[in-house]
Write a structure and sequence with these properties.
The protein is mainly beta. It has helices at 2-9, 92-100, and strands at 15-16, 20-21, 28-34, 45-57, 64-77, 83-89, 105-113, 117-125.
């Protein structure tokens, strides 16, 4: 009973609330994170946004495709509780990738926290 209570009280990595992300004209992306279960504090950690590109090669029967991940931006967040906002600023190359894809970029959002593991989410950046 004592060990189970300690494991249940261990803070976890937060979850991403909204999957449709937008970048403003200055390249800022705002992500809303939530600590689960509600009322518990999350540990501080790192956040990485990677674009997922599909690359097609070959012809006919030899046609193949693979997924390439390109890191757009990474940053860190402080420990929080409930819902909290993290703002990341895209660099010049990341904004160029976004400009080349007006339909939006498929993203992989990785949220890690010390001692709490890694959580990965799919999102779209417009």
């Amino acid at each position: 009973p004592g060990v189970a209570r300690l494991l249940a009280a261990a803070p976890a990595a937060p979850v991403l609330l909204h999957r449709d992300l937008r970048a403003d004209s200055r390249g800022r992306v705002r992500l809303t994170l939530r600590c689960k279960p509600l009322g518990q504090r999350c540990r501080a950690g790192r956040l990485t946004l990677s674009a997922r590109f599909t690359i097609r090669t070959g012809r006919g029967r030899h046609r193949a495709r693979r997924i390439a991940l390109v890191t757009l931006v990474h940053g860190s967040y402080r420990a929080g509780s409930g819902d909290f906002l993290v703002t990341l600023r895209l660099g010049r190359r990341a904004r160029a990738h976004l400009g080349l894809h007006p339909e939006g970029l498929a993203l992989r959002v990785a949220i890690s926290a010390a001692g709490a593991g890694l959580r990965v989410f799919r999102a779209t950046l417009n």
